[in-house]
Amino acid sequence: MTNTADEVKDMYARLGISEKVYRFGREILDSLEPRFAQIDKTAEYNQLKVLGAMQENKVSEACLLGTTGYGYNDLGRETLEAVYASVFHTEDALVRPQITCGTHALALALMSNLRPGDELLSPVGKPYDTLEEVIGIRPSKGSLAEYGVTYRQVDLLADGGFDYEGIQAAIHDKTRLVTIQRSKGYQTRPTLSVARIGELISFIKGIKPDIICMVDNCYGEFVECTEPSEAGADMVVGSLIKNPGGGLAPIGGYIAGKRTCVENAAYRLTSPGLGKEVGASLGILRDFYQGLFLAPTVTASALKGAVFAANIYEKLGFRVVPDSVETRHDIIQAVEFGTPEGVTAFCRGIQAAAPVDGFVTPEPWDMPGYDSPVIMAAGAFVSGSSIELSADGPMKPPYAVYFQGGLTFEHARFGIMKTLQNITDAGIVVL
Ligand SMILES: *Cc1c(COP(=O)(O)O)cnc(C)c1O
């Protein structure tokens, strides 16, 4: 008679996982069953939401084909945008391969909805690094600042709460658009839940109802049963090589929201007068549809990986953000190792678990835009995709790694066990 459990253990051993690491992981995993059941419930809900949106908008085989040239009357593109609008409960959506990445989608949403003399406000502190140049916080060619759009920022309070007084004081007649980043990104503040975003938006709209509230939704899609657009956001914006692309979209971004906001973005993406009417989808739509279809369960796999890692490393005495029991609002997990060796061993473990480039050894290097060397681990089918298992760590105190993704939980689990194997082999922890 075969014993499947032993066979699986043997397979782990063949791939370099020791008995001790296997056991440690197994015990942690057993304790996480109720947690994982909750994640599965959310995935179930979101799977039905996506499926319902596809049926309601009559996705047909013809929608999976693409157009070339101008792309007039692109049935698949128009239907996909209607599906996104249904999923996010918005009036309209722009979902395009011509939106090259998350930063581009955010820049597009901002630049198309702001005019010279307007002011942009971030009530949740410093936005994602790449937006600093979009806004002009760091001077840059083509920034909003160059076009006469000013910027104001209100930081979160020390306890992570909103500085309501500060926000009220920062809003004046020129304040046109508020940008709210849902995910903590690479900061240590907590990620915002949809409920908290909703509270913030109703406070802001209570002061000035015509302010456009935009949410940077990167890494947050399908983590909860609702999206910020159901909590009052006028626009939600994100990247298709993160959650909503389900690992299949090879490029792209989306803006879902009020018809006027999406219209402005479309006129800016293509041209005044043309808007959403042009933009050939080429052969990419099938991956967009199928990726969106898989996104709820892929996001659940990534979340389980994050929870698994938090529990492993917290038990070993490291600070993890979010901690082992907190509810999740995005898929990013931070682990503070406190030493460069810890960061390096972790990232090399993730790399060694990759299906592509699993044989390469990542090294810290000086990357443009960073003030210290960064080590990155990624072996993805889609270059740079961070819904696939990936990690990076800046080589400076507190020597934390940020990791995310995993198209399947089985892969995320193996990757995390590989990190633990490396960390124990390096003598950083003893099991
Ligand atoms: C990833 C990310 C972005 C930028 O997306 P890119 O695709 O890397 O340009 C912006 N904001 C947040 C919170 C992100 O996680």
- Give the CA-based shape: globular
CATH class of the largest domain: Alpha Beta
Architecture of the largest domain, according to CATH?
A: 3-Layer(aba) Sandwich
| Side-by-side strand order of the widest sheet | 1-7-6-5-4-2-3
Reading the helices and strands in chain order gives HHHHEHEHEHEHEEEHHEEHEEEH
The number of domains is: 2
Looking at the structure, the CATH topology of the largest domain is Aspartate Aminotransferase, domain 2
Helix/strand/pairing category: alpha/beta
- Counting DSSP E segments of at least 2 residues, the number of strands comes to 12
Structural notes for this entry:
The protein has 431 residues and is of the alpha/beta class. A seven-stranded mixed sheet has the order 1-7-6-5-4-2-3, with helices on both faces. The mean pLDDT is 96. A hairpin with a 5-residue loop joins strand 11 and strand 12. It folds into two domains: 174 residues, Alpha-Beta Complex (Aspartate Aminotransferase, domain 1); 215 residues, Aspartate Aminotransferase, domain 2, CATH 3.40.640.10. The protein has twelve helices and twelve strands. Helix 5 packs across helix 9. The site of pyridoxal-5'-phosphate (PLP) has 13 residues, from helix 5.
